[in-house]
């Protein structure tokens, strides 16, 4: 990710990394948060969101992002099975300077399966330092 708001370009695509749907984590998640969900159906929507949120948080640790303003337009396309490798990416859709020291970045986030099919997507608005 570029060093500051001003270096970020509209259309830029950033990898958020990859992770597999861990079968043990799936069992534990379903037992704790989605009783009645059969793991044969794949990861439930809430776990898919948690997987994306973890990839996003890990990728953003060194970014000049100072605040997440919102996550919206959430879409779940499929429930990935245990063991499936998921890959995250972020595409910069728009940017708006809001002062001398910061700007807002609007980005599309996608979580893709091994075949490149969309599993989950959302839009974010975040404050980045200039």
Structure description:
The structure is a single chain. The protein is elongated and about 50 Å long. It has a 5-stranded antiparallel β-sheet, covered by helices on one side. The mean pLDDT is 94. The protein is built from 2 helices and 5 strands, in the order E-H-H-E-E-E-E. The longest helix has 15 residues, at 45-59. The protein has helices spanning 23-33, 45-59, and strands spanning 13-20, 65-76, 85-97, 102-112, 118-129. The protein is an alpha+beta fold and 130 residues long.
| Beta-strand residue percentage | 35-45%
| Helix and strand composition category | alpha+beta
Low-confidence stretches: none
Percentage of residues in helical conformation: 10-25%
Strand line-up in the sheet with most strands: 1-3-4-5-2
Number of helices: 2
Mean residue pLDDT: 94
Outline = elongated
The succession of helices and strands, N to C, reads: EHHEEEE
**DSSP E strands, number:** 5
Distance between the termini: 13 Å
Radius of gyration: 16 Å
The major beta sheet can be summarized as: 5 strands, antiparallel
């Amino acid at each position: 990710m570029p060093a500051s708001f001003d270096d970020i370009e509209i259309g830029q695509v950033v990898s958020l990394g990859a992770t597999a749907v861990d079968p043990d984590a799936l069992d534990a998640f379903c037992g704790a948060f989605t009783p009645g969900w059969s793991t044969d159906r794949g990861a439930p929507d809430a776990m898919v969101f948690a997987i994306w949120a973890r990839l996003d948080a890990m990728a953003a640790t060194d970014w000049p992002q100072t605040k997440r303003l919102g996550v919206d337009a959430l879409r779940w396309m499929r429930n990935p099975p245990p063991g499936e490798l998921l890959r995250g990416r972020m595409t910069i859709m728009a940017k708006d300077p809001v002062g001398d020291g910061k700007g807002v970045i609007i980005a599309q986030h996608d979580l893709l399966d091994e075949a490149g099919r969309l599993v989950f997507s959302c839009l974010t608005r975040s404050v980045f330092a200039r």
